[in-house]
Design brief:
The structure is a single chain. With 320 residues, the protein is an alpha+beta fold. The protein has a single domain, classed as DD-peptidase/beta-lactamase superfamily (Beta-lactamase, 3-Layer(aba) Sandwich), CATH 3.40.710.10. The chain is 38% helix and 16% strand. The longest helix has 23 residues. It starts with 7 loop residues before the first helix and ends with a helix.
Length: 320
C-alpha cells in the first residue's frame, strides 16, 4: 500500500491485514485459539497470504479448543504457521514417523523392504492397525527412530516412553517436515513414492480432515489421529499432502481440548476448506465435509486414557 493516504473502510481493511500478519505470542494450552492469528506469508502472492490469514482466523474465531496448523504450497511459496511449535500427543499420526523411519532404514541397509516390514507397514497406514505399529516401533528401536528424526530436522518431536508410541509429542511444524520428506524431489528418501502410495490408500472412513474442500485433479495422501484422554479432551489431528500435475501442497492441523471427536473433525475441515479454496479458486470440489453421523467417536486406541506416570506432566501440558 506504500505511503499513500488511506481512509474509511480501506484504512480499516489495511489495519486488519497488518494485524493478521504480525507475529503474535502463543497462548497457553486450553485458551481460545482465536487469540493466536494464522500468519501466512508468500513473496510471490502476498494478497493470497493476507486473504488466507483472514479466512483461517475467521474459522477459528468461532471454534473452541486448542489448534495448531502448518501449510506450505510449493507453487506460490505460501506458508502458514499458527502456533506450529506447540506440542501435542501425536496419537495415530505417529505412524507416519514409524513408516518413514522404516523406509529410511531399508535405504541405509541398501535393500528393499522385507516381507515382514511390508506386512506391517501397509496395515499400519491404510487401516491404522495399532498392533502393526507396535511391532514396527519395537523392531526399529529408539536409536533408529531418534536418528531419523534428527536427519529430517525435527525440533519439537519427542518419542513416547517405552511402548507408548501414541504418546509421542509432536508439533505441526515437524509434521510438515515429515510430509516434505515424502513430497520433495530432493529428499534423501528414495522410497517416498511407496510411502505416498500408502497414504493415498487410507480406508474411506478414515479419510476425513484435511481433504475436505480438496479440488478435482489432486490426490490426497493423509494420516489422521483421534484420541481422547483424561486431560485436554479429544486430540484430533489430520496431516496430508496434495499432489497433482504441476501442483503440490501440504496441510497439517493438530488439536486438543475438543469436547468430541466430531467437533475436532469439523474444526479441521473448516480450516482445510479455507486453505483449498484459497489455493484452488474456481476448481470444482472432489470431497466435501464429513457428516457428523460418519464420525465414530471411538478412540484410535493409540494411547491410554489415563495419565502415564513419569510422562504426562500437567505443568508441561499447561504451556505446551
Amino acid at each position: 500500500m506504500g505511503t499513500r493516504m488511506l481512509s474509511g473502510r480501506t484504512a480499516i481493511a489495511a489495519a486488519v491485514v497488518s494485524a493478521l500478519l504480525a507475529p503474535m505470542p502463543a497462548v497457553a494450552a486450553g485458551a481460545s485459539s482465536v487469540q493466536v492469528p494464522a500468519a501466512c506469508r508468500s513473496v510471490l502472492n502476498p494478497d493470497l497470504a493476507a486473504r488466507m490469514s483472514r479466512d483461517i482466523l475467521g474459522v477459528l474465531s468461532s471454534r473452541r479448543g486448542t489448534v495448531s496448523l502448518a501449510v506450505h504450497d510449493d507453487g506460490t511459496g505460501l506458508t502458514c504457521a499458527f502456533a506450529s511449535e506447540r506440542q501435542y500427543d501425536a496419537a495415530s499420526v505417529a505412524k507416519v514417523t514409524i513408516m518413514e523411519a522404516t523406509l529410511r532404514r531399508s535405504e541405509e541397509l541398501q535393500r528393499t523392504l522385507t516381507e515382514w516390514e511390508l506386512a506391517n507397514v501397509r496395515p499400519m497406514i491404510t487401516v491404522s492397525d495399532n498392533a502393526a505399529a507396535q511391532r514396527l516401533w519395537g523392531n526399529l528401536g529408539r536409536a533408529v527412530l531418534d536418528r531419523f528424526l534428527i536427519r529430517v530436522g525435527t525440533t519439537g518431536t519427542e518419542l513416547g516412553p517405552a511402548g507408548y508410541w501414541g504418546l509421542t509429542r509432536t508439533t505441526a511444524a515437524d509434521q510438515l517436515r515429515l510430509l516434505d520428506v515424502l513430497t520433495n524431489a530432493r529428499s534423501f528418501l528414495k522410497t517416498r513414492a511407496y510411502g505416498l502410495q500408502l497414504l493415498s490408500q487410507v480406508r474411506a472412513d478414515q479419510r476425513w480432515g484435511v481433504p475436505a474442500g480438496m479440488p478435482k485433479g489432486l490426490t490426497a495422501h493423509l494420516k489422521n489421529g483421534w484420541l481422547p484422554r483424561s486431560t485436554h479432551g479429544w486430540r484430533v489431528h489430520s496431516v496430508g499432502a496434495f499432489t497433482g500435475p504441476h501442483r503440490t501442497y501440504r496441510i497439517v492441523v493438530l488439536s486438543h481440548d475438543n469436547p468430541t471427536m466430531a467437533y475436532g473433525v469439523r474444526t479441521i475441515e473448516r480450516i482445510a476448506q479455507a486453505v483449498h479454496r484459497g489455493l484452488d479458486q474456481g476448481r470444482g470440489l472432489v470431497q466435501g465435509p464429513t457428516t457428523e453421523g460418519k464420525v465414530s467417536e471411538v478412540s484410535d486406541g493409540s494411547a491410554p486414557y489415563e495419565p502415564v506416570p513419569g510422562w504426562d506432566e500437567p505443568e508441561r501440558d499447561a504451556t505446551s
